[in-house]
Structure formats: structure tokens, C-alpha cells
Design a protein that fits this description.
Order of helices and strands: EEEHHHHHHHEHHHEEEEEEHHEEEEEEEE
Largest sheet: 8 strands, antiparallel
Protein name: Beta-lactamase class C-like and penicillin binding proteins (PBPs) superfamily
CATH topology of the largest domain: Beta-lactamase
Oligomer: single chain
CATH architecture of the largest domain: 3-Layer(aba) Sandwich
Radius of gyration: 21 Å
Distance between the termini: 46 Å
Helix content: 25-40%
Number of helices: 12
Number of domains: 2
CATH class of the largest domain: Alpha Beta
InterPro entries: AmpC-like, Beta-lactam-related, Beta-lactam/transpept-like, Peptidase_S12_Pab87-rel_C
């Protein structure tokens, strides 16, 4: 489902089919999981609370948590609310005690008590504000403490402070019976049936479900805050870049902001859905793309649409061509690799397919663009394997000794771990 907001008007488009068994195209009322696009809502909630005088962006996050919870202080610097909203808290992407009993619905059984236990004992690798490290944990913690401050749940906070003012009737964490009947069935990147995700504790990082109609209303408010919503000051505040985020982006309160053209955007990925939301305040144009296939390839389509709406040129997005790689070569890549900051990347083979799992995240298939280079379809990332310290050889003659994960303009190296789990 696609929504285009331009010239003060909204147009909706539906492509494909709702599922293998349902040939109807989706429409603006079809419900999808929007994953990390939720972070744009969490950033707006923080900005709104700051505008209302309920919190300050530089408040220590500790100030708004129970006394028994002690956030780490590194270098004498406490983690602030702004640090959490901009992925500069020093907290890791995911807590190390995240061990889902059901990998198909990985967040469902992660509890508030587990989150508290982790932050009580964690020792961050860097000081707050020292650098950008994308953190679902940090944004989930922010959503949690904002709800605590308001004396309600994260979902109800979103409904009362964002959805009701903007007329968004279908944006929820828990769906009504009517919305559930309109929920597009989830599929993985290979279009195989997948599972819905439930994210109770880290809700502020990715729990929301929505429709193209609701998200178009959300984007329209971002583009014309003074006309469309009482949240105008908070919306403008949430867009302000606050630090570099790697690659060509800065980070605002929950949003990425492209330096080149000022596009404000976020994408979202769950096990069976992908979402892209982007808009340009200078041109008054925005797009929403929602799909019930867990593939990040629609991000390029969304960015291309924005360029076209700004009068630019855009080539149709294309997938990298695949090459055939013998099973014996794939076996040379199988193993465990130690990634920064101490997270394990596990590479496995099933028949002629290679899979990668980073930490406690879901296992994702990676596809061969070359004999030693594999790309994801679920996210915009790729992995290159090396058999030696020279960066050559590609693992064709012996087992790979290391890999490099490229994502979001960053290169993350990983060295093969020994058979007993020892570091390289």
C-alpha cells in the first residue's frame, strides 16, 4: 500500500495482492506492522512532553525510572532523554539477556524485569553522547519511561497525544477485531508465510501497527504542522538534527535526516513486514510505503518517489543479480564471527541457502551477489567473506577467517571464533 502526500493532497495506491490466497490488492485501510517507524512516534512523544514542560531533553533518564533501576554512568556522564532518542546513549542495539523462546515472535516474552536487570548491570563501551549506535533497547526504554511519567501504557500515550489529535483511528499496538480482519498476513523476504510480532516491553522501538490512511495523516502533519495539528511546535522540534548518524544522515528525535536534501525518514522491519516513511518539509511532499513482505528493497522505491516528487530523476530500483555458489564454498563461510561490541554473527547453511543471525536477532537469509559477497533482502546490508588477512581470496580455497558487514554507511568487521567460542 502506498500513500503520496503532495500539494496538500493525498493519493493512495494498492499493488500486488494481500496474500497467496487473497488476490485483492491492499488499500488505504489495510493494516500492517510498521516496525521501527514507531521510533518517529516515540521521538514526537518526547518532544511533546518537553514542550509541555513535563520533561527536559537533557534530563537524566534515571530521573524518570524507579529508584531500584540504576542506569549506568560512564565518564561521569548520565544518559539523558536526548541520548536515548538519538541513539547516543552508549547502550547496545539489543540487551544481551534477550533470548526469545519463540524466534518467530522474538520480542513477545521479553519482560520489563529483564530490561531493568540488563540496564542495572550493563557497562557501556562508550560515554553517553560520544557516538551513534542504533539501539532498539534505548528507544524501547525511552518509550517505557515516557509512559511511566504519564501514568499510562505506551500505546495509550500514542493514542491520546498523537492519534486522536491527528484523526488516526487504526494506529495501535493491540488491534481491534475490525482492524485485525484488515491485517495483511505477514511474509518473509522469500514470500513465505511468517509470524506477527508482539513487542510489549520495547514498544517504543517498534510495536505499532497502522494503515496507509493513518500514516498519510501523520506525514501531512509533519509537513504542515501549523495547519494540521496542535502538535506543531513538538513536530518541528522532533525534526531538528542533533548529531551525525553515520553515512549521509544526521539523527533527530527518532528520525533520520539526510544532509543533502533534508529528507526526514525512517524505515521499519519486522518478521513479515517492511515500512518506509519519508518526507521533505521544503517541498511539502511525503511518501508512505507499507508491505507485508519482510524485505528492505522498498526503501529504495520510497527514496526514488521522493526524488521524483521534488522534480528530480530516479531509476527504478533493482535487485542485485544472483550467482550460483557451490555448497562446498558456502560451507567455508559457516561459523561464528565476533562483531563489535562483542556480538556474535552466526552463519549457517541449509541446502543451497546461507543464513546469518546477529546476536539475538532473527535469522535472515543472505543471497550471493558474488562468490564471496552476499546481500540481505530483509534489510539494506551485505556481508563479504575473506579467507586471509589481505582482503583477497574470498574464502574460495579455505575457510573464511573474517567477514565485513556493510550497513547504513558503516563497515563492521568480524573475526572467526574458535570451536570453543574463543575470540579470534
Amino acid at each position: 500500500a502506498v500513500a503520496v502526500v503532495a500539494g496538500g493532497e493525498v493519493r493512495f495506491y494498492g499493488y500486488g495482492r494481500r496474500s497467496a490466497d487473497d488476490p485483492r490488492p491492499p488499500d488505504e485501510h489495510t493494516v500492517y506492522e510498521i516496525g521501527s517507524v514507531t521510533k518517529g512516534f516515540t521521538g514526537l512523544l518526547l518532544a511533546a512532553a518537553a514542550e509541555a514542560g513535563e520533561v527536559k531533553l537533557d534530563d537524566p533518564a534515571q530521573q524518570h525510572l524507579p529508584a531500584a533501576v540504576r542506569l549506568p554512568v560512564k565518564g561521569g556522564k548520565p544518559i539523558t532523554l536526548a541520548h536515548l532518542a538519538t541513539h547516543r546513549s552508549g547502550l547496545s542495539r539489543m540487551p544481551t539477556n534477550f533470548r526469545p523462546t519463540d524466534p518467530a515472535n522474538p520480542y513477545a516474552d521479553y519482560s520489563v524485569e529483564q530490561m531493568y536487570a540488563f540496564v542495572n548491570g550493563v557497562k557501556p563501551a562508550r560515554e553517553p553522547g560520544e557516538g551513534f549506535e542504533y539501539s532498539n533497547l534505548g528507544m524501547g526504554l525511552l518509550g517505557h519511561l515516557l509512559a511511566l511519567k504519564a501514568g499510562t501504557s505506551y500505546e495509550q500515550l500514542v493514542v491520546e497525544r498523537v492519534c486522536k489529535p491527528l484523526g488516526m483511528a487504526d494506529t495501535r499496538v493491540v488491534l481491534t477485531d475490525d482492524a485485525r480482519r484488515r491485517l495483511a498476513p505477514p511474509h518473509d523476504a522469500d514470500a513465505e508465510p511468517a509470524s506477527n510480532w508482539d513487542i510489549p516491553t520495547l514498544a517504543g522501538a517498534g510495536a505499532l501497527r497502522s494503515t496507509a490512511k493513518d500514516m498519510a495523516a501523520f506525514v501531512a502533519a509533519q509537513l504542515r504542522p501549523d495547519e494540521k495539528t496542535p502538535l506543531g511546535r513538538a513536530i518541528r522540534r522532533s525534526h531538528q538534527p542533533r548529531a551525525a548518524a553515520g553515512g549521509a544522515n544526521d539523527i533527530a528525535l527518532g528520525w533520520h535526516v539526510q544532509r543533502r536534501d533534508g529528507v526526514v525518514w525512517h524505515n521499519g522491519q519486522t518478521g513479515g513486514y517492511h515500512a518506509y516513511v519519508g518526507f521533505r518539509p521544503d517541498t511539502g511532499a511525503g511518501v508512505v510505503l507499507l508491505t507485508n513482505t519482510g524485505s528492505g528493497t522498498i526503501d529504495a522505491a520510497g527514496a526514488a518517489l521522493l526524488r521524483l516528487l521534488a522534480g528530480g530523476r530516479a531509476e527504478p530500483p533493482s535487485l542485485p543479480k544472483l550467482v550460483a555458489v557451490p555448497a562446498a564454498t558456502l560451507d567455508r563461510y559457516v561459523g561464528r564471527y565476533l562483531m563489535p561490541p562483542g556480538v556474535v554473527m552466526e552463519v549457517t547453511r541449509v541446502d543451497d541457502r546461507l543464513y546469518a543471525r546477529l546476536g539475538a536477532q532473527p535469522r535472515l537469509r543472505i543471497y550471493p551477489a558474488a562468490a564471496d559477497r552476499f546481500h540481505y533482502r530483509a534489510v539494506a546490508a551485505e556481508i563479504t567473506f575473506f579467507a586471509d588477512g589481505e582482503g583477497g581470496g574470498g574464502g574460495r580455497e579455505k575457510a573464511a577467517s573474517r567477514l565485513v558487514l556493510r550497513q547504513d554507511g558503516r563497515e563492521l568487521p568480524g573475526g572467526r571464533m574458535g570451536p570453543q567460542g574463543e575470540a579470534p
